[in-house]
Amino acid sequence: MFRDTLSSRASTLRYDLPASLVVFLVAVPLSLGIAMASGAPLAAGLIAAVVGGIVAGALGGSAVQVSGPAAGLSLVVVNLVHTYGWRATCMITLLAGAVQLVLGVFKAARAALAVSPAVIHGMLAAVGILIALAQLHVVLGGSPQQSAVANVLELPGQIADLHGHKVAVGILTILVLALWTRLPKRLKAVPAPLPALAIAAVTAWAFGWDVTRVDLSESLTGWAFPVLPQGDWHLVVASVLLVALLAGCESLLCSVAIDGMHGGRRADLDQELTGQGVANMVAGALGGLPVAGVIVRSTANVQAGARSRWSTILHGVWVLVFAVGFGWSITLIPLEALAALLVFIGVQMVNLGHVKKVHGHGEVPVYVMTMAAVILLGLAEGILAGLALAALLALRRLTWVTVLKREDRDGRLHVTISGSLTFLGVPRLTHELRTIPTGAAVDLDLNIDFMDNGAFEALHSWRLDHERMGGTVAIDELHDEWYTLAASGARTFPAKSPPKVPDRWWLPWAQRRHRDEPATTTPDGTPECLLTAGAREYHRHTAPLVRPIFTELARKQQPSHLFITCADSRIVPSLITASGPGDLFTVRNIGNLVPRRGSEPRDDSVVAAVEYATQVLGVRTITVCGHSGCGAMAGVLSGGVQAGSLPGLRRWLRHGSHSLATFIETEGDRLHGGALDVLCRVNVQQQLENLRTYRKVDEQVRAGTLELVGLFFDIGSARVHMVPPLRPATPARTFDAMD
User: Fold this and answer.
1) In this structure, are residues 445 and 417 in contact, taking their beta carbons and an 8 Å threshold?
2) Does the annotation mark 627 as catalytic?
3) Residue 674 backbone class (left: φ over 0; alpha: ψ -120 to 50; beta: rest)
4) DSSP assignment of 445-512, as one string?
5) Whether 630 is catalytic
6) Does the residue 393 lie in any domain?
7) Active site residue 268
8) Is residue 481 part of a domain?
9) Neighbour count for residue 426 (Cβ, 10 Å)
10) Separation of alpha carbons 347 and 343, rounded Å
């Protein structure tokens, strides 16, 4: 334990301490700028940064996420300050934190992920545009207007009435921000906002420019407890919920995004929401801005090498030390420089990368609708408009029906209907079905996950009419039998069924042609390879169903079992173990043999797989599976005679000599009558022993972190039996045949 404590402290000093300083340098200027954009005292931004770092960092569910004042909430806060005043806005923040705390306690965090990211990104882009438009007036020496339209209309007059020194400071700040990323890597280690504000302040002081300066000293000592908002309580409750949900959603989505940037522990979203709630309660009570997880500071934290929550906590401590000990230095910063920083941040919030992502999923209309509505109507109205459009598009996708038709070489028409068959899709369905020629022989595949009565009536009526006119319709349902159940009058359940693997997938190729299908041929008329035909069938029926599973598995494999079995074509590991993709790390060879350590002839292929499975993949179980009538064991039993003129096979079967010796020693009285299957079982036990000749395997077995399991598959009865090891690592267990 003492060693673990020292290691943790060393990691904090090596990684988290430097990262906290980087985040601190980012947080101070951004916190001041966001407070300014929110119409709040500048100290409120620093208070939120301190609370977000210390409280949310200590109590939240993400190890590296950084919380503090968020630009996305500034539009809400500025409206609240204008409507209720600053102290009442602090009370709304406090109450919003209480709502977040309750939601976190009741495990509601996952529900926030149901909000379309296109809505969130569109909202943030709109807020960025609004911030940039408003603060551009400050850069030009004027004052921002109440709406985006008014800011645009007033902009020409503001440009005509330029204030030289103020404009110069703003332009200088933007130039430093834009050019800082082009500097050498050592200089870029200092976040751009800090040198931009410092250069602007020093330049304005050196040349005696007439700029507006800010004063933080009074706001740090002028604290007063929040007061209840006065006005319509319905609107107050709506404001509390809006702050709680927006801050919560932004924090949770940020947690999910940051999880993809580091390899440490994944975030606990419910704990994160609870921590954010406590932080907002504290921030509201102390007179700070609402707190949320912020992507810019969190990304800087990860890129700076943070390993634990200590980086976030320490950055809050540094902000507190700066505010208390060096608050006077903020009076040197020109207000126009802060405004220029906000213009730069606002422009960056319109992220083209987000547009590309939502475009790939057909959600650009949601993004544009949300952004336009927030700019023109307001934040709450824009979010509701975006959510409504996202819901409509989702409903359209859920009810979209695709009908694909192709004619086979024998003249049969193959029709595949995919999607969810509801009454909303009936017009398209009937239109496509009516284009099928009268009297055609139709193979109809229903690749659907739901069918309501309206869709069934339309499909069934078409079938009856088509067959009455001399055609034939053979229906094959790839999911649950919605059509068959409805046609028989049985009750169907109003819930979408999960996809299942198409029927008969496990049958041999020769037994799978059940519809009088002729053997397929290539364009030159030669019979098509069965493997190629099988691949086509996989792409046609199975690939759409298993694609979501393989999408998750594409990044890495995490099998729980190493499965060593025979190369015999009758052994299908996934079938006899009811396992799926990603479950088994499989090794197959003649006789399911594991060469003992140092044995001859030397063969490292099996041990390489064992080493990789146990030391890299971290499997918990190694299974050796033999089977009845094994030809390899027959060769071993014949002393290699049955291997005939196959020298490679004879050499390989030498690895089975220990199995034969164990068989003779333990089962010598059964050398006649069923001896082969007895040897096959003994061979499984011997291979488990061979595995333990490798030190790492034996150590893990003794430590209880690895289990060795023997299986025997009786091909004739299609039964799997457990085979006990020769020397159990734990007290002996009773193994019975598995029914």
Assistant:
1) yes
2) yes
3) left
4) EEEEEEE-HHHHHHHHHHHHHHHHTT-EEEEEESSS-HHHHHHHT----SSPPPP-PPTTTTS-GGG-
5) yes
6) no
7) no
8) yes
9) 19
10) 6
Q: How far apart are CA 252 and CA 246, in angstroms?
A: 10
CA 4 to each of CA 1, 81, 230, 311, 705: distance values in angstroms, whole numbers, following the listed order: 5, 49, 54, 19, 22
Q: Say whether pTM exceeds 0.90.
A: no
Q: Which of 309, 315, 627, 692 is catalytic?
A: 627
**At 292, which helix (H) or strand (E)?**
strand 291-293
- Mark whether 254 is an active-site residue: no
Residue 521 burial (C-beta neighbours within 10 Å; 0-12, 13-18, 19+): exposed
Catalytic residue among 249, 568, 625, 658: 568
Among 387, 417, 432, the domain-final residue is: 387
Q: Any idea what the CATH number is for the domain that residue 471 is in?
A: 3.30.750.24
Tell whether 606 and 711 lie within a shared domain.
Answer: yes
Q: Which of 468, 500, 532 is the last residue of a domain?
A: 500
Task: Give the residue, 68 or 332, on which the prediction is more confident.
Answer: 68
Tens digit of pLDDT for each residue in 491-509?
555 555 544 444 555 666 6
Strand partners of residue 439: none
Q: Are residues 15 and 138 in the same domain?
A: yes
Secondary structure, 3-state, 371-415: HHHHHHCCHHHHHHHHHHHHHHHHHHHHCCEEEEEEECCCCCEEE
Catalytic choice (90, 249, 254, 566): 566
375-399 confidence digits (pLDDT tens): 888 877 888 898 899 888 887 777 7
Alpha carbon distance 630, 651 (integer Å): 17
Task: Look at the chain and report how many structural domains it folds into.
Answer: 3
521 inside domain: no
Catalytic pick among 90, 625, 630, 680:
630
Q: Are residues 377 and 409 in the same domain?
A: no
> CB–CB of 684/723 below 8 Å?
yes
| Cβ contact 340:170 at 8 Å | yes
Q: Are residues 679 and 718 in the same domain?
A: yes
Name the residue range of residue 488's domain. 404-500
**CATH classification of the domain holding 716:** 3.40.1050.10
List Cβ neighbours of 508 (8 Å cut-off, separation of 6 or more): none
Catalytically annotated residue among 570, 597, 620, 727: 570
Both 437 and 488 in a single domain? yes
> Do 310 and 431 belong to one domain?
no
Active site residue 698: no
My answer on whether 431 and 575 are in the same domain is no
List the one residue out of 361, 377, 358, 396 whose CA is nearest residue 122. 358
* Residue 322 tokens, joined: 């700066």
Residue 704 lies in a domain: yes
Is residue 13's pLDDT more than 60?
Answer: yes
CB crowding 310-345: b at 16 or more within 10 Å, else e: bbbbbbbebbbebbeeebeebebbbbbbbbbbbbbb
Q: Which residue did the predictor score with more confidence, 203 or 25?
A: 203
Is residue 319 a contact partner of residue 49, using CB atoms and an 8 Å limit?
Answer: yes
Return the bridge partners of 266, or none: none
The amino acid occupying position 501 is V
